[in-house]
Amino acid sequence: MRRRVLGAIAAAVALTLPWVVVSGATDLLPRLAAAVGVEYQPPGALASLSTIGTVFVTGLAVLGSAFLLTWAAETAEKDVPQAFAIAVLAVLAVAPEYAVDALYAWNAGVFAGTERGIEAGNLAVANMTGANRILIGIGWAGVALFTIYRAGASTDPAVEERSGFLSDVVILDREIGLEIVFLLVATLWAFLVPLNGGIDIYDMLFLVGLYVCYIAVILRGEVEPDMDHVGVPAYLQSFSKPRRIATVFALFACSGVLIFTAVEPFAHGLEYLGESVGIPSFFMIQWIAPLASEAPELIVVVYLVNKARSTAGFNALISSKLNQWTLLIGTLVVVHSLALGKYGVLAFDFKQSAEIWITAAQSFFAVSLLIRFEISVREAITLLVLFLSQVFLEFALIREFVTLPVSSTELLLVYTTIYMVLGTVLFVRRRKAFGRLVRRTAGTIGDAMSPGGETPQSADD
Fold it and tell me: Which pLDDT score is estimated for 39?
């Protein structure tokens, strides 16, 4: 077992080594040389990677880092509540998206009052909304379908076969009800964000405060030391506690740094490749760059599902959506204000207001699907089709491949209405289940916040 585990770790590390070598030769080593007054010339082969080469090398680094990150989170479940370990995993896995989006928010502050600054503010919102919609439209829907139709799904306790057309479902852990309710609250607030002319301090205080409250609740949960792990996490959990904790921190730190540094050139490389085949840069920034920055999260979840840890995988997706829909939005105005040198609202145009509304509406519909702690094949396909059809139609309009009686902004409002109608119908039909979910969550928060209280690990609806 020890040989297999070390082999797996070595393979994951090997995937990251080309990027470590390239980034060290082209960035770190010159800085160190300059610091000691020595002239350094990077090797030509390393300093002149092609765009395709950059995408390949950084993509491998993201893949290897995703495995290290997952093993760290699974190992940590021996010492902290599973929900907290998954929350840390989710934050680190989507850290690249924070880095990319923060860059645009920073430029909006640096170039405030100019055309470049206005464009950067719009791009910050576009990138954020694109990332959030990808996480649900491709992440939630795709992973649900993969969970049900992958090899070995019949032995997965999270997969339940039901009679009827496309009726098989993925059963979710009822403990994820806390995340669902917090996500709904953040979604309802998001509808109000465009009404103030941009992302402001009130959005930051509410959304960041909401996430801090969520973390405070899950930290009071119980540790689940008896969870059955295999492979690398099982081996690492056999270490003594000090050694185990040090290993977890080291894996989190290394994978986080590698993902953080590799994903920006990975995303930009994909943007350049897209532009070279005629895809508009704005479209690339909204969709291709977020798709690249979300890659570590999707890899992590697919890995968990393939290990028959479907519940943990889906929980990680929901946790990622929650932190992106709260922390990501809330911190944009902080980054913008720091670059500006004073407090300032991160302003955007009406097109980006429509992007926020459709993103909130998609989130509203997605939450309505999970009220009963399950998602069916039919529901997952609906999520996927709605997402893909809107993106392809908007692209076709931008490239003038088709002519529609609506503009691209009006198209967003049409899809917003569709999401809202579907979500409202489901909330009405499932109102009893929603009432039980709210009561259960209120009890969880109450128990966690009471002196000496702990979050219950199980409860009947």
Answer: 56
CA 294 to chain centre: 6
Number of other residues whose CB lies within 10 A of the CB of residue 321: 26
pLDDT digits (tens, 9 = 90+) for 212-250: 999 888 877 665 554 555 578 888 888 888 888 899 889
Residue 347 pairs in a beta bridge with 198
Contacts of 10 (CB under 8 A, 6+ apart): none
Residue for token pair 């977890």? 248
What is the separation of C-alpha 356 from the centre of its chain, rounded to a whole number of angstroms?
Answer: 16
pLDDT of residue 22: 79
Q: How far apart are CA 334 and CA 342, in angstroms?
A: 10
Secondary structure string (H, E, C) spanning 10-62: HHHHHHHHHHHHHHHHHHHHHHHHHHCCCCCCCCHHHHCCCHHHHHHHHHHHH
> In which residue ranges of the chain is pLDDT below 70?
1, 24-48, 82-83, 89-90, 92-93, 151-152, 221-230, 267, 308, 451-461
Amino acid 356: pLDDT = 97
Helix (H, G, I), strand (E, B) or coil at 241: helix
Secondary structure, 3-state, 162-211: CCCCCCCEEECCHHHHHHHHHHHHHHHHHCCHHHHCEECHHHHHHHHHHH
What is the C-alpha separation between 145 and 138, in angstroms, rounded? 10
Contact 288, 271 (CB under 8 A): yes
pLDDT of residue 444: 83
Q: What is the model's pLDDT at position 43?
A: 46
267, 327, 373 from 207: Cα distances, Å: 27, 7, 24
Tokens linked to 352: 């980006």
Which DSSP letter does residue 8 get? Answer: H
For residue 223, count CB atoms less than 10 angstroms from its CB and return exposed for 0-12, middle for 13-18, buried for 19 or more.
Answer: middle
Q: Nearest 5 degrees, angle CA 202-CA 207-CA 213?
A: 125
The predicted pLDDT at position 410 comes to 94
Which pair of tokens denotes residue 387? 């997402």
